[in-house]
Amino acid sequence: MCFVIAGVQPRTRTIDQTPRRCPRCGSHQAVTQQVDHYFSLFFIPLLRIKQGDPFLYCQHCQLQVDSMGVETGPPPTDGPQKPLCRQCGRTLVSDFRYCPYCGRRQ
Q1: Taking Cα atoms as reference points, which of 60, 45, 52, 40 lies closest to residue 14?
Q2: 88: nearest Cα among 75, 76, 106, 72
Q3: What's the DSSP call for residue 97?
Q4: Which of 70, 80, 81, 86 is the most buried if burial means most Cβ atoms within 10 Å?
Q5: Cα separation, 46 vs 101, whole angstroms
Q6: ∠ CA(24), CA(26), CA(31), 5° rounding?
Q7: Which of 31-45, 55-69, 70-84 has the lowest mean pLDDT?
Q8: How far is CA 49 from CA 8, 10, 63, in A?
Q9: Contact predicate 92/99, CB 8 Å
Q10: Taking the CB of residue 69, how many other CB atoms lie within 10 A of it?
């Protein structure tokens, strides 16, 4: 008796690590990614069967913008927005004068 585990699984890969400005939150933490689908055997990807389209993904607010400019991903929060560092884009406490991550004056 023999068991074979095979299937198709998606794999997300980062195409360009250069940080870009996010159109939603304004932080410079958006990178270009792509989701490709692979045929896998015993959970090992062997053959790419479908190449996905590149999209912009913000690591801060999880916004995804495809090549047509359509936004996907979680909706923006309606609660109070925490201030972001103007240089590195990380979340700050409102009374900080300097960013604890990059050291820039706010």
Answers
A1: 52
A2: 106
A3: S
A4: 86
A5: 40
A6: 85
A7: 70-84
A8: 8, 10, 26
A9: yes
A10: 8
Count Cβ atoms below 10 Å from residue 89 Cβ, excluding itself.
Answer: 22
Rounded mean pLDDT of 26-31?
88
b (16+ CB within 10 A) / e for 26-61: ebbbbbebbeebbebeeeeeeeeeeebeebbbbebb
Q: Which residue has the tokens 């960013």?
A: 99
Residue at 71: amino acid letter: E
Structure confidence by residue, pLDDT tens digits, 50-72: 999 999 998 888 888 887 777 77
Structure tokens at 35: 């989701």
State pTM to two decimals: 0.60
